[in-house]
Write a structure and sequence with these properties.
This protein is mainly α. The protein has seven helices and no strands.
Length: 221
């Protein structure tokens, strides 16, 4: 359970308690209203009894006001608890958690590294290390096969993120399955670059949906 999950649960539980006490106070106030009505109906010529009745009515009226103020305060607190819980759930359904932020950052840099390696391949300056680097990148990207969007996200966001993860996984599998000198073949290289472009397109959709600042990622590299 994340911190936000805990906040949502505590806020909702508190809201339920506050609202239950609100209902209880309203019921008690209604009962006091009936009691006050009965006291007002009592008539007596005895001065002492009349004064006692006045004191009783005032005490009941004071208690009713206290119940009303307390009920109003608890209702406000209960409403705030519901609002906090609802907002927390909404926030989690539309925003990336820490783990997914890290996954997206990894995917971004892995994709950049692949594009850099492809540029080296095209320029013919990759050397013997090129194949080794591509093998390493293939295994790292292939790890996205077990990555899935957090269940707390809305269904549309989950589909978007899972499509991106899946395209990264497919790219890693595609790279691993190729002859690691494929970059010497113009057609194979062009085909692979198309696959990279598809992943990049999915990545841009994810960045747009979750307002990821790509410029800040470029600066951190």
């Amino acid at each position: 359970m994340t911190t936000l999950d805990l906040i949502a649960v505590i806020a909702l539980a508190s809201a339920i308690l506050f609202l239950l006490f609100t209902v209880l106070l309203v019921v008690l106030r209604v009962r006091l209203g009936g009691q006050l009505t009965k006291l007002k109906r009592v008539r007596t010529k005895n001065k002492k009894k009349r004064k006692r009745l006045v004191r009783q009515r005032r005490a009941v009226e004071k208690k009713r006001r206290k119940y009303m103020i307390s009920a109003l305060a608890l209702f406000i607190l209960g409403s705030a608890g519901v609002g906090i819980s609802a907002y927390t759930i909404y926030y989690q359904s539309t925003n990336l958690n820490q783990k997914e932020q890290e996954q997206i950052v990894k995917g971004y840099y892995y994709l950049n590294d692949i594009e850099d390696q492809l540029m080296l391949a095209e320029s013919g300056t990759g050397g013997e290390e090129l194949s080794s680097d591509l093998t390493t990148l293939a295994s790292r990207i292939g790890a996205f096969a077990v990555v899935r969007a957090d269940y707390r996200l809305g269904s549309d966001y989950q589909q978007l993120l899972n499509r991106y993860y899946s395209s990264l996984k497919d790219l890693g599998i595609n790279l691993a399955s190729r002859n690691l000198t494929f970059y010497d073949n113009v057609e194979e290289l062009a085909d692979f670059k198309e696959d990279v472009a598809k992943v990049r397109s999915n990545q841009k959709e994810v960045f747009k949906a979750f307002s990821v600042n790509e410029d800040s990622l470029k600066e951190q590299k």
